[in-house]
Structure formats: structure tokens, C-alpha cells
Request: fold
Amino acid sequence: MKKGYLSEIFVSFQGEGAHAGRRQLFVRLAGCNLRCRYCDTPDSLERQPGFRLHDPLEGTRDLPNPVTCAELLSCLTPLLRRREPLDGSVLTGGEPLLQADFLAELLVREELPRPRLLETNGMLPERLALVLPQVDIVSMDMKIPSNTDEPAFWQEHARFLALARGKVYVKILIDAGTAITDVERAADLMRSIAAETPVFLQPIAGRQGAYDVEPNALTAFYRASRRFLDDIRVLPQVHRILGVQ
Reply:
């Protein structure tokens, strides 16, 4: 019996990518293998002794880590029993694939609403293989070195993309510090492996919600990407604009 470390559970509108605006159940796992400069969920980077369950009727509760799959599903029961319309569930982090064994055990259960969307930094293809049959959608970040303050991960991303092909869309985060050559390399990599994959150029929002990428720069990133791929969209984080979790 596997146990997992969570950061929080809540229901909200999807804020990013191909399913933005849909009402979903979010299960945020704790722990991440990266420390990206722009991380917008720093509280999920490390495993903690407890996690938070946000219930719109009963309020927020603090619960202990780690949890078994049965304990997690028991926490979800009040949220699911109310029959609130939900457009699926989201497994996010942190980096959820760090706990792929726990996820594999969880996902064979039927309680999590479908479609099931996995949000990941796209660096752990071997762990993706453990859960991919039970995941409906993969939201993959393409981490580019000019704005993450991390090394380049082109080889890891290539293997991951090849495995997730057919279920995946890709987000490439951009800001004033992003090198257009990195965006071009990411798009070229995708063309060579999965050219049909939708790509979202996502402006990075600062802590105050402001964007430091100019409209002309957005256009330049878009044109550079379209040299390699057809399905390119510019989309900010919708939940930031709405002021929701």
C-alpha cells in the first residue's frame, strides 16, 4: 500500500492551457525536482507534515501527511457527493510524477472524475509510463533555460513528448528574459517528434499579477514558433485574471 504527500485539494476553474475555464477537482501533490524562477506554487515544492482541504461549504481543514489512496478518496467524498458539475480532475504539484507509484495505485480506482488531467514538468518519462494508461490528458511544461534558471532538459523533454504523444499539449512560459532561440529550439524539437501537438505560449505573471512581456515580444515569440508548428496559441493564466485559486 503506497502513501502520498499532498499539498492541497480544492475545486476551481482550470487556469491554463487547452482546458482553461473548466471547473475541475484539483489534487495538488507535494514535492518538486525543479526550482524554477517563476514558480507560482512555492508552498508545494517540499513535502510537509500536513496538507489543506478546501471545502466551499465546510471551510478549510488541515490534514496529516502522508495518506493512503483510501484516505485520500475519503477526503474527496464530501466534494464529490454534492454532485457539483465537474469537468474532470487535475493531478498537479509540485511535480506529481515524483510520486508515480502512489498515483498508479490511485488511478486504478474509479472515484476520480474523468477526464483526468496530469500537469507535469515533462522530465520524467519513465515515471509517466506507470500512469499514462489511466490518464486522459497530459499538460506538459517545456522548461527552457533562459527563464527557469535551471539547466536545459531537451533530451528529457524529447523522450517525454514521444511517450505522451496523442494525449499531450505543451505550455512554453515566456517573459522579458526568455530567449527567442530557446522558443525556436522547443518548437523545432516538437516538430521532429509530435508536430500535431497544441502549444500554448503562456506569459509569466509576477507575484502581483503583472506581466513583463510586451505585445511586440508576444508577436515575435508567436511568429518564431509558427515557423515550425501550426497550432500555436498565446494564453495567460486565466485564474490570475479571475482572482481565483
About this structure: The radius of gyration is 18 Å. The longest strand covers residues 6-13.
